[in-house]
Design goal:
The complex is a heterotrimer of chains A (259), B (285) and C (400). With 259 residues, chain A is mostly helical. The radius of gyration of chain A is 23 Å and the shape is elongated. By secondary structure, chain B is mainly alpha-helical. Chain B has 13 helices and no strands. In chain B, α3 runs antiparallel to α4 and α12 packs antiparallel against α13. The longest helix of chain B has 34 residues. The mean pLDDT of chain B is 90. With 400 residues, chain C is α/β, with parallel strands linked by helices. Chain C has two domains: 170 residues, 3-Layer(aba) Sandwich (D-Maltodextrin-Binding Protein, domain 2); 175 residues, D-Maltodextrin-Binding Protein, domain 2 (3-Layer(aba) Sandwich), CATH 3.40.190. In chain C, strands 8, 11, 12, 13, 14, 15, 17 and 18 form an eight-stranded mixed β-sheet that branches. About 1% of the residues of chain C have low confidence. Classes of the chains: A mainly alpha (259), B mainly alpha (285), C alpha/beta (400). Chains A and C meet through α4, α6, β1 and α14 of A and α1, α2, β2 and α3 of C. β1 of chain A pairs antiparallel with β2 of chain C, so a sheet runs across the interface.
Chain lengths: 259, 285, 400
């Protein structure tokens, strides 16, 4: 059994390993037949070229900018909404709950065409706003956080309210700190999803300077024809940060997925 | 006091309205016009809907999407389950298995596509090289319609099985050890344990994984579009890709919106079906 | 927490750096094209040789390029300069996805109608305005292997004897062999359009003339090896076929392989000289707030680039800019100069929105006509197929 598991794991790692191996080769060696894992002249050259040639740095910067912005906005907006839904009563609360469920069912793919028309109509095509704002709408995250807040004992709040704290104060000083693990999970999940998102950034933005990493990598070609070592180096450079993030934040990510 | 609660929900509602409700309305409106990519629109009533039901490309891309869903879902579920069962036993190295099986899921689709189209290359592609060394012929993984869908599904399994793997692993770790120990004392073989204890206790997870996978597969776009060279293989085109092409390549925003709405109805129907099925089960329990 | 804090701090620094890189300094005029491989390096050379600073980006040839270009133009923040196949103009200019050139600006930079071939300049106009400045004409030509054709007695003074009429054509192909790129290719459409327009076939389609063309193609296909582009190139390049009927852009490949070849304009088989061609041209994608200063710089850049089109011609293309096309440097560039007359006989795709490079018409028709070449479809059936395709495309609402 152990052998089978180990074999499967090795097979699963081969594509990444082969990509890394190719990225370490000189370009001329990448297309040699028969293939071999070790060739003369292996180096980190392709990685250097990937940075220098083209807009890789800009794309990574855009992904980071959009990722951080969407995550920050999402955490703020969804935690506010989740707290409001969990702890307060107001007219229309049921409508909002229904909207939440409806929002979870509507797939983003259905919206790309009219959303593009809307963005163009607002004059926001090819801007960071077009990338960031639509990605902040995550009804599922509101639902998850609401469930969390539902589980917080009311006595804690009642004590704070008795002490004269307003709703906002309770939210800020009491609920948020309590919710840190859940918020961390939401933040990590949102960041990963945003970083990897392809379809909407692909539609929203055509300017290569604004492209996020996944879009840039898929859209922009080298004018010289495909240079496999270099392009795989670029792919690895952009793809691996999230794996590193996973190693650092494993628990939160798994919690978020289970939620 | 009653009003102030509402303000907490306002920021979310504003964004929700602006980027979910408004597009839905715009889409509905566009679907009854011949709106083009520059925004010019004229009312056409139900013409788009009539056209799409007779459009062979709509049916073929729906067909491709269904094939993709029907074939990839069991593959991903089974592979994910197998991985979880294997990794569950390997306590000290579990982190290594977690990394190996889950890392692909963290990669953006463009990276996955690049790695796999490189693997699928004729001649110097690793897979064809291996086949040649074994004395078998080369395979045109992405160059023939027939193989292309298979290749796309293989890539998809590699990319996304890690997600179900995690869900199954988490569920497996919640099964109490005593159940296994007790049954072992009663002389149960590992296979019997699997059938009688593990799998039934995973039924909730099965449901979750399957429904998530089916819904995700129906919405597929990225890897099919990119592995076919940005739309170069109409024989594997998914319905979302046809929506994309109708709207942005052929400039028919109105028509694409109509197809989007029909697609949405399909998704909603599947979700509703699942809801009915699980609600029914809950009542039975 | 230390590890986490470190990573988060690193991300913050990276964000700042990245964002800085994303909107840093003067990057020159944004320029999109679809050239990779040999054409890509030649264009890069030209961009490097001019004074105006251009920030060039290459997108994947064909549908992905035109989709992105249209979306950028619809959004109003398109690049300053882009390449467009002139055959695609009818699908872009009337929609307002391109901005017209200011005639005074064109004149000021020497980009006047008399400096470009009539055939292509007319296709660059719409509603009385100029929307494109042609860089080249790239027609189909007839490559011939000098050794094989010499042995077959088809040469005169080292050059191919003129071929007129169906009989002589089939005869020549039969004697020396023809490599034909017809499988999974749009080339069959171009071959068909050449023969159709040589009969002065009007519109889509004159049945009789289309049938004549298809019947000839069927006979040609019978003498040739039915393969895809790569295989056909390999056949001619390695000296296994005497003729290769394809676009002039294949020229550098055979030069690299040291094939003993020459190039002639495609023979006139019917009433008038004509050959299918397209033209890479420079256009101004639509911008919401067009800056006159930048536009002037863009036109200056265009003038500089067409001035560099001798470099471009090394890839086999015929320069559209006459001062270069009539220069001694170009006239001495062989074998390119041998087929320069094809520019005047250029026949682009019909001026409808559904035709042009990478269009539905080309791929559908290419498949149908390819079947005729391959012998798996009769000319009559193919004609029916083509007409059905045209009807279907005509009935699709034209884009807006």
């Amino acid at each position: 059994m152990r052998a089978v598991a180990a074999l499967l794991a090795v097979i699963w790692l081969v594509p990444l390993a082969w990509a890394l191996d190719t990225a370490l080769k000189p370009e001329s060696e990448t297309t040699r037949i028969p293939v071999s894992w070790i060739v003369p002249g292996m180096s980190l050259d392709a990685f250097g070229r990937a940075f220098a040639d083209g807009s890789l740095l800009a794309w990574l910067g855009n992904s980071l900018l959009v990722g951080v912005a969407v995550t920050a906005l999402t955490v703020a907006v969804t935690s506010l909404a989740a707290y409001g839904l969990s702890r307060t009563r107001f007219r229309g609360r049921n409508i909002v709950m229904a909207l939440l469920v409806a929002g979870i069912v509507i797939p983003p793919q259905v919206l790309i065409v009219p959303l593009f028309a809307e963005i163009v109509g607002l004059g926001l095509a090819d801007t960071y706003w077009a990338l960031i704002l639509p990605q902040v709408v995550l009804p599922a995250m509101v639902y998850v956080l609401k469930k969390f807040f539902d589980g917080v004992p009311r006595e804690l709040e009642e004590a704070a309210v008795v002490d004269g704290a307003g709703r906002l104060r309770v939210y800020w000083s009491l609920m948020l700190p309590l919710a840190r693990p859940a918020l961390a999970a939401v933040a990590i999940f949102t960041f990963v999803t945003t970083w990897n998102n392809f379809l909407w950034p692909f539609v929203a933005v055509s300017d290569p300077h604004l492209m996020t990493f996944p879009v840039g990598l898929a859209t922009v070609q080298s004018s010289y024809g495909v240079r496999y070592a270099q392009v795989l180096a670029a792919a690895l450079l952009g793809g691996l940060p999230l794996v590193a993030l996973f190693l650092a934040f494993q628990r939160q990510l798994v919690t978020a997925i289970k939620g | 006091m009653n009003r102030s609660g509402f303000w907490f929900v306002v920021p979310f509602l504003v964004l929700y309205a602006a980027f979910l409700i408004v597009p839905m309305v715009i889409g509905l409106g566009a679907s009854v016009t011949d709106e083009g990519i520059t925004g010019h629109a004229g009312f056409v009533g139900g013409a788009n809907y009539a056209e799409l039901f007779q459009d062979p490309a709509v049916w073929s891309s729906l067909g491709h999407t269904l094939i993709f869903t029907v074939v990839s879902t069991p593959a991903i579920v089974l592979v994910g389950l197998a991985m979880a069962l294997l990794a569950n036993r390997a306590t000290p190295e579990r982190w290594l298995y977690r990394l190996a099986f889950f890392a692909p899921y963290l990669l953006p689709v463009s990276v996955v596509v690049l790695i796999w189209s490189w693997l699928y290359q004729p001649g110097f592609g690793l897979i064809n090289d291996l086949l040649t060394r074994l004395g078998l012929g080369e395979v045109g993984w992405l160059s023939t319609d027939g193989m292309a869908m298979t290749s796309i599904i293989i890539t998809t399994v590699w990319w996304t099985a890690g997600f179900s793997f995690l869900l199954y692993l988490a569920a497996l770790q919640e099964i109490p050890r005593q159940l296994y120990e007790a049954s072992a004392l009663d002389g149960a073989t590992p296979f019997q344990q699997l059938r009688r204890i593990t799998l039934p206790l995973l039924s909730r997870t099965h449901q979750l994984v399957i429904v998530l996978q089916v819904l995700a597969s129906l919405k597929v776009f990225d890897q099919i579009y990119l592995l076919s060279g940005q739309g170069g293989i109409p024989g594997v085109r998914s319905i979302v890709q046809y929506i994309y092409e109708s709207g942005f390549t052929r400039f028919r925003i109105g028509y694409a919106s109509a197809i989007s709405y029909v697609f949405f109805a399909l998704i909603a129907a599947v979700a509703l079906l699942h809801f009915r099925l699980t609600a029914g089960k809950g009542a039975k329990r | 927490m230390n590890r986490r804090t470190f990573i988060l701090a690193g991300m913050a620094v990276a964000t700042a750096t990245g964002a800085g890189a994303a909107c840093s300094g003067p990057t020159g005029l944004a320029y999109w094209n679809l050239f990779s491989g040999g054409d890509g390096s030649r264009m890069t050379e030209m961009v490097g040789a001019i004074g105006t600073r251009l920030d060039a980006v290459t997108l994947a040839w064909g549908t992905p390029y035109y989709t992105k270009l249209a979306m950028a133009a619809a959004g109003g923040r398109a690049p300053d300069l882009a390449i467009l196949h002139l055959s695609r103009l009818p699908g872009f200019a009337p929609l307002g996805l391109l901005d017209p050139f200011d005639d005074d600006l064109l004149v000021a930079h020497g980009l006047t109608p008399d400096r470009f071939p009539q055939a292509v300049w007319n296709r660059a106009r719409h509603n009385g305005r100029t929307y494109a400045v042609p860089l080249d004409t790239h027609p189909l030509v007839l490559f011939y292997n000098t050794e094989l054709c010499g042995k077959a007695g088809l040469l005169q003074d080292g050059k191919l004897k003129p071929i007129r009429g169906e009989r002589q054509l089939l005869d020549a192909f039969g004697k020396a062999g023809l490599a034909l790129a017809a499988a999974r290719d749009v080339n069959p459409w171009r071959l068909f359009w050449t023969l159709y327009r040589q009969q002065d076939g009007q519109g889509l389609l004159d049945d009789a003339k289309a049938l004549t063309a298809l019947r000839l193609l069927q006979k040609i296909g019978a003498t040739a090896r039915f393969t895809d582009n790569n295989a056909a190139v390999a056949l001619f390049g390695s000296g296994q076929a005497g003729f290769f009927w394809n676009g002039e852009w294949e020229l550098p490949t055979f030069q690299e392989q040291h094939t003993p070849f020459d190039v002639a304009p495609f023979p006139q088989i019917y009433d008038r000289p004509a050959v299918h061609a397209d033209s890479h041209s420079f256009v101004l994608p639509h911008q919401r707030d067009r800056d006159p200063e930048r536009t002037a710089q863009t036109v200056a850049a265009i003038a500089e680039l067409v001035g560099q089109s001798l470099t471009w011609a090394r890839g086999g293309h015929i320069p559209a800019y006459q001062p270069v096309a009539t220069s001694s440097a170009y006239l001495n560039l062989l074998p390119q100069a041998n087929y320069r007359s094809a520019a005047a006989e250029a026949e682009l795709d019909p001026p409808v929105w559904f035709a042009g490079a990478a269009s539905d018409l080309q791929s559908s028709a290419g498949a149908t006509i390819g079947a005729v070449l391959g012998g798996t479809m009769s000319p009559e059936a193919a004609l029916g197929d083509l007409k059905a395709t045209v009807m279907r495309l005509k009935n699709t609402p034209s884009p807006s």
